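Sync notes, pocket subgroup
Present: LS, DG
LS reminded everyone that the earlier model was apo-only. Rerun requested with 4'-deoxy-4'-aminopyridoxal-5'-phosphate included. Inputs:
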Amino acid sequence: MGASLPSALVDLVGNTPLISLARIAAHVAPVEIYAKAEWFNPSGSVKDRAAWNIVRTAIQSGYLTPEKTLLDATSGNMGIAYAMLGAALGYRVHLVMPANVTPERKVIMNAYGADMTFTDPMAGSDGAIEKARQLYAQSPDAFFYANQYDNDANWLAHYHGTAEEIWRQTQGRITHFVAALGTGGTFTGTGRRLRELNPKIRLISLQPDSPLNAIEGWKHMPTAIRPQIYDPALADENIEIATEEAHSMARQLAREAGLFVSPSAGGAVAGALSVAERLKEGVIVTILADAGYKYVSERFW
Ligand code: PMP
């Protein structure tokens, strides 16, 4: 075999490994749990999939042109993904986020050269969404408003990518898909396609148990602006996860599986295990949205 050719950065989005959580899930055997290691994406999270599909679609349809600035509200990972793509492809990026996002995230977005507007932490991610809408309304010609919450290219990234990968990597054996809701893109897109591939697959969405949760990237749907791309009828079941459960599982994954992952990923595995505990057999797949590096300043480790 000859040496492989170099890839463009965007070609590294997706096709992440599926990791067996056999040790963590030993007590639920013969139920199997697997997780998509989404920090293998080039900016380090699952959001590269949505960001790249949104950017690619906008370039193809002429909405994003070199003189425009990509604008969006983001809790962090999507902003990092946009900022990376902007730097790699030569577009300016302007991100709106609550002022209390972790310092690590601000440093990363700044390193990629993105502009940032900070909103009132008390207004949460909805405050950032309102501010982004306002900025766009003031200067519609200056911006491409990517609008990850309402943009079909978000969930379609998972419909064409994540779902097909999971189907292939489990040889069609998956019985349950468990994933958290942020914009709902991951759950909606992956869930829709998996259900087409096998109508018997159970789809379980995860949400924080309170609007005051501290699981970065997750949305408490009953109290938030509902994303247009989120289809509440899709899930067979919704499970609520406490912040402490997510933190505790993130610690356990580091120590017992060698996986240094985020509270989001910890919460996802906690959800997958609670599904597994009720089953006699099954193949559960969940999403480890990002690694732990962006959360090192948090106290729970
Ligand atoms: N986990 C983390 C860490 C995230 O940043 C996000 C995105 N907000 C999610 C989960 C949820 O992903 P989605 O937006 O596709 O629902």
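DG: The domain at 47-145 is CATH 3.40.50.1100 (Rossmann fold).
LS: The chain is about 35% helix and 15% strand.
Action: DG to write up.
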